[in-house]
Amino acid sequence: MSTVDAADLRRRVADLLAAHPPATTDRLDFLRARFDAGLAWVHYPVGLGGLDAPRSLQAVVDAELEAADAPDNDPRRIGIGLGMAAPTILGFGTEAQRRRLLRPLWTGEEVWCQLFSEPGAGSDLAALGTRAVRDGENWVVDGQKVWTSSAHLARWAILIARTDPDQPKHRGITYFVCDMTDPGVEVRPLRQITGEAEFNEVFLTGVRIPDSARLGEVGDGWRVAQTTLMNERVAIGGGSAPREGGMIGLVAETWRDRPELRTHDLHQRLLRLWVDAEAARLAGLRLGQQLALGQPGPEGSAMKLAFARLNQEISGLEVELLGEEGLGYDDWTLRRPELVDFTGREAGYRYLRAKGNSIEGGTSEVLLNIIAERVLGLPPEPRTDKDVAWKDLPR
Description:
Helices cover 41% and strands 13% of the residues. The protein has 395 residues and is α+β, with helices and mostly antiparallel strands.
């Protein structure tokens, strides 16, 4: 059991700041030193950026470093690596994989993407058709992925592929780490309703992945993927924000500053959404406390579902509140943004971009099933494909 406490962490942070003053230390050098000092994610093992300390003590480190104006690792930019790849590598990777991958992941030197969704599988992720065929010490991968954030920036990807089509669809899947610079990996922009292309299609043609880049056992990829998916939903829906932060804050500000726009109906809707946003914020804080005690559970699916519904309702209210002014749109030029900038753009952008919230990171329909079965304990949906080999499923 760890003997690290808050006082010990404050001393360690002070030592780090003394050895690497933020004002005179290169940002990347500081981040590397922070990782090596075990102050990156304190609940991770010693030698992997942590100290085997309780996760709840991370807030102590973050507060001390923020007060010292120390550089951060830009967590929004590398959210897939931090929120999805890292816990999966920690849970299922070999020691060699952990030591090679986690440090540059945390510092942001190497960006990650997630090669899960496929155009032929829709919301049924387990129906994926990308194949990985064993060839000696390598796997040869062929297939297509879609809706891949950050693929145009990524050095690495977490990838699930079918390795045994004779097994039912949830079995016979294996989980890999894919080097996005390898021959056969092609990334194409996917332009969205906003005009931007933050997502990509990724084509995999004869990509050779060494067996040493496999996470978990052969054929056990669906179980490994559950760790990624639960963390993904928490990462999307469980973020903390200040009171009246995010999109509800923008609408409330407009309401206060523009009395000529007000109507009784809009007032009632704004009140309801403000309460819903506050309830979601407090639930997110509670989820964060639960996370500090262990692994994320299916509750993250509820948060992600609430986040998507709220964003769409709030952005719709904002457009109605602004009337013709809300229908304007500034620029349809194709851009390749690294981040989704909800609060830095106009109302029209927020309205259009929020439509994707109920698709990305698991559709709302899939999340409703998870909540029904794993949170409420309701009977599962009938599944006629449960014991049918994937190769025999109709397509």
